[in-house]
Every structure is written in C-alpha cells, then in structure tokens.
C-alpha cells in the first residue's frame, strides 16, 4: 500500500518544524473494535471469514492479530474503522454471525501506534515541510550496496538530509550507513567514483555484495558499482559459451568477468582504477575462477591490443574436474583404484582459443572513444577467420549513452553513425556480416538513455594497417 493510501486515522502525527529526529513524538491511539477468541483452533477460520467480508484492517504495517489485554490467554482480530463494538448496526454480517455463534466476542480496542509501527514514507511525510508537498513524492528511493544506502537528494531536500538519513537508517534493518552523492552532474572522475557525505551511521563503505551467485568485496567510495545493472550483466555473460575467450576492457570489480569465469569462459579482465583492479583480483580468488579469469590494470586502449596479442601467443589450458565421483566408501581398494583411474581418464582439457570471441566495453560515458584501438588489431591474421575458416570476427559489446529523441529509430541511427565515426569503419544495422544488435538498457536521465550496441568488428577495420604510434 502506498503511503497516500493509508487512511488518515492511521497516519502519524505531524511535526513540520522538527530539526532533530524525535522518535518519542510519534505516538497515537486509534479507537477500534476487535473480536476476541479464546479457542485458538478457531483463529484461522474466523480470520478467513472476516477477510472475505472485508471486516478486518487491510494495512500492511498493522498486524491484525493481537494479544487480548482484557482476557488473559485470548487473542484479538482487529476490525476496520467504522465497526463499533457498541453499535451492532455497524457490524458486517460475518461479525454478527461469529458473535451470535459464541465463537468470538466483540470488544473495543485501543490500538497504540509508535514510531516503530510507521514506514519510512509515513514518517517523512509527517516531518518534511509543506512547501515540498508539490513534489508529490518523499525522497525514499535509494540504491542498496551491501550495508550502504546511497541516495541522490534533490536540492529542495538538502536542508533535511540528516532527518532523511536517520529515518532511512531506522526503517531499513540491513542498512548501516546512509550516504548522499554531493557532486554536480558532469563532475564525475575518470574512475566513475563520486564525492559523498555521510547522512547517518559510520563512514564505512567497505561492503560485501552478491550478484549472479558471486561475492564481491570493495570500497564503494573508491570503485564503480551499480546494483541496478545485475540483470544486464547476466544477459550478456550468459550469452558467452564455455571455452570462449572474452576481453573485458573496463571490467570494474568483475560483474561480467567473474560470473563468466564460473561458466568456464576464459576472461582477460582489465580496469584502469587501481582500487577496482585490487577488488577484481580479490573477486577472482574469492570466487575460485583463477583458472579462467586474469586481471590487468592498464589503459583500455592499450589493453585491447596487448590482450589480443597476449592471447595469440599464450593461450591457456584448464584440466577440468572429472564428472565421475568416487564415493567415500567404494568397496575394496581395487574397486576404489579402478574408479579413480576411470575418473582421471574422463577428465578433459579445455583449451583457450587464440582469438577473442567478445570484447566488452562497459564505460558508457567514454567507451566509444576507445573504438579506434581496433584498427588493425587482427592485421596479418586473415587466414584465421571467415571465409578462410568457420571462425567469425569477434563481437564488440559497447555500452554508451545516447540522447533521447521522440522516435527511437533516430536514436539507433545516430548510435550507428557515432560508432562508425570512432571505429573508422561503417556499421549499419542492416549489415548481415556484422550481426548488429542495439539494445536499450535503461533511462539514466529524462533526456538520456543507456544502450548496449553489439556488432562484429568489420573486416576493413580488423585487418587494416595499424596506425603508426
């Protein structure tokens, strides 16, 4: 139920001038009626009948089953406002039937509400000034990163930021620290980190997060992490096939690379941010994907060329565990040795190819500017790819921001034009050789979208003469 849908009678008392959170102020007694039940075996049946007749309170924050303070050992089911224990004419038929049958007794009930009973929305509505009412929404949306709640307060809410932070902390048990981003739009660092202020709790941004069955530990103030992109991460790494090689150019702490490694995909992962690189190394070890994922800390443009060359010269091989399990109790020693030999013989080696199948470029603000690094990246290796072999040129998965237009087709055409300009080769959506797929990811601002453009490197680019540096 939205805060606006809570009946006025159940809303907390209002104090628009509160400067420091006073939890004791939020107390209220609501006069209701209740059905008292001494035979606990009847509770489920009574509750079902009352629910069908809409006779109980239907507000998630209020528990309708309570102790009966007038009858020791009995329970009460709270009835909705308008049902008066002393006025049978107000009773729904279900209530009348239950009372007349002797299954229950009706009685007045004083429902005592305190700060702990109201939601974050309810409390903020009661303390934020009237001048903010036109905003229609309380500032309760936040990103949850480990034990940290990260909010972006709009200007009008900044004078009340400590109040907002404390209420958010109180009402979200898994949150220990509340921070607010303090930079103006356009002042982000090259590492996509941001200045922040602590609104509530300790200044502790060392977090542990879980995504795609993987665990990551990092300092949220020093690396980039967006908890809203988990679905997008999975969409891409689940498209990788076992045994493929992937070049993750702007890997961050590894939300693509580490889950891909768990799927037995060979990943060369890189990030320029030393803190991201350290967290990436930790994630590789922590999630036991060392055999499939390695980490680098290089400029992305150099990494594209260096990783491509390193792979060609030093592909890896991994001896996979056997699918034959030797039971703990295998009978005789001869039987055990036989099973162990069979298990060892069944193990297969997964060999890394000499060329990448995918390049991931997840730096939406500037990744497109790195496309020139693909000029001549496979120069002299034409014999390794189609049409000489069945191997197609690799995919580039480019994340980028795009201005929002009235017609989506204009956005897609402009994306292709921008890619072509930076890549130095023509990329068209109707080119069957490039398998172009431009996918909308999310709206990041009223007039800005995030897309993932996937396309194969054009042969004219991949095999071109490398520019002289």
How is this structure best described in words?
- With 469 residues, this protein is α/β, with parallel strands linked by helices.
- The chain folds into 4 domains: 27-117, Alpha-Beta Plaits, CATH 3.30.70.790; 120-204, 2-Layer Sandwich (GMP Synthetase, Chain A, domain 3); 227-321 and 348-462, Vaccinia Virus protein VP39 (Rossmann fold), CATH 3.40.50.150; 322-347.
- 24% of the residues lie in helices and 23% in strands.
- The protein is built from 11 helices and 19 strands.
- The strands form 5 sheets. Strands 13-12-11-16-17-19-18 form a 7-stranded mixed β-sheet, sandwiched between helices.
- Helix 6 (257-262) links the parallel strand 11 and strand 12 (266-270).
- The mean pLDDT is 92.
How would a textbook summarize the main sheet?
A: 7 strands, mixed
**N-to-C SSE series?**
EHEEHEHEEHEEEEHEHEHEHEHEEEHEEH
Number of helix segments? 11
The spatial strand order of the largest sheet comes to 13-12-11-16-17-19-18
- Uncertain stretches of 5 or more adjacent residues: none
Overall spatial form: elongated
CATH topology of the largest domain: Rossmann fold
Helical percentage: 10-25%
The CATH homologous superfamily of the largest domain is called: Vaccinia Virus protein VP39
Regarding CATH, which class of the largest domain? Alpha Beta
Strand content: 15-25%
How much is the average pLDDT? 92
CATH architecture of the largest domain: 3-Layer(aba) Sandwich
Tally the beta strands. 19
Instruction: Give Rg in angstroms.
Output: 31 Å
Terminal Cα separation, in Å? 62 Å
Protein name: tRNA (guanine(37)-N1)-methyltransferase
EC number: 2.1.1.228
Keywords: Cytoplasm, Methyltransferase, Mitochondrion, Nucleus, S-adenosyl-L-methionine, Transferase, tRNA processing
Main location: mitochondrion
């Amino acid at each position: 139920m939205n805060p606006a849908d809570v009946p006025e009678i159940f809303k907390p008392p209002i104090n628009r001038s509160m400067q420091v959170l006073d939890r004791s102020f939020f107390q209220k007694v609501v006069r209701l009626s209740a059905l008292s039940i001494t035979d606990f075996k009847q509770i489920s049946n009574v509750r079902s009948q009352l629910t069908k007749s809409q006779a109980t309170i239907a507000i998630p924050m209020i528990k309708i089953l309570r102790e009966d303070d007038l009858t020791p050992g009995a329970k009460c089911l709270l009835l909705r406002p308008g049902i008066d224990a002393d006025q049978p004419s107000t009773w729904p038929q279900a209530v009348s039937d239950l009372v007349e049958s002797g299954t229950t007794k009706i009685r007045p009930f004083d429902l005592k509400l305190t700060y702990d009973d109201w939601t974050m929305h309810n409390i903020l509505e009661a303390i934020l000034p009237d001048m903010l009412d036109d905003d229609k929404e309380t500032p309760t949306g936040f990103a949850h990163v480990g034990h940290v709640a990260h909010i972006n307060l709009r200007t009008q809410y900044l004078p009340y930021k400590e109040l907002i932070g404390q209420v958010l902390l109180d009402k979200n048990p898994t949150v220990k620290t509340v921070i607010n981003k303090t930079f103006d739009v356009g002042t982000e660092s090259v590492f996509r980190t941001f200045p922040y202020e602590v609104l509530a709790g300790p200044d502790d941004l060392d977090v542990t997060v879980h995504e795609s069955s993987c665990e990551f530990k990092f300092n949220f103030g020093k690396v980039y992490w967006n908890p809203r992109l988990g679905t997008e991460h999975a969409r891409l790494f689940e498209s990788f096939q076992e045994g493929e090689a992937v070049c993750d150019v702007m890997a961050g702490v590894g939300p693509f690379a580490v889950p891909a490694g768990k799927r037995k995909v060979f990943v060369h992962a890189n990030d320029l941010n030393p803190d991201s690189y350290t967290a990436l190394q930790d994630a590789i070890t922590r999630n036991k994907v060392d055999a499939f994922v390695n980490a680098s800390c290089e400029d992305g443009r150099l990494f594209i060329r260096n990783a491509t060359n390193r792979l060609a010269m030093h592909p890896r091989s991994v001896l996979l565990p056997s699918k034959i399990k030797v039971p703990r109790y295998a009978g005789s020693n001869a039987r055990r040795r036989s099973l162990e030999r069979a298990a060892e013989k069944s193990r297969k080696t997964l060999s890394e190819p000499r060329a990448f199948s995918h390049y991931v470029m997840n730096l939406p603000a500037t990744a497109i500017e790195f496309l020139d690094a693909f000029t001549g990246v496979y120069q002299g290796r034409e014999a390794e790819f189609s049409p000489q072999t069945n191997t197609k040129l690799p995919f580039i998965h480019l994340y980028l921001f795009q201005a929002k237009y009235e017609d989506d087709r204009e956005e897609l055409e402009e994306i292709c034009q921008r890619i072509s300009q930076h890549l130095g080769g023509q990329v068209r959506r109707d080119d069957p050789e490039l398998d172009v797929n431009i996918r909308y990811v999310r709206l990041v601002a009223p007039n800005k979208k995030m897309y993932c453009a996937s396309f194969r490197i054009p042969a004219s680019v991949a095999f071109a003469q490398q520019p002289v540096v």
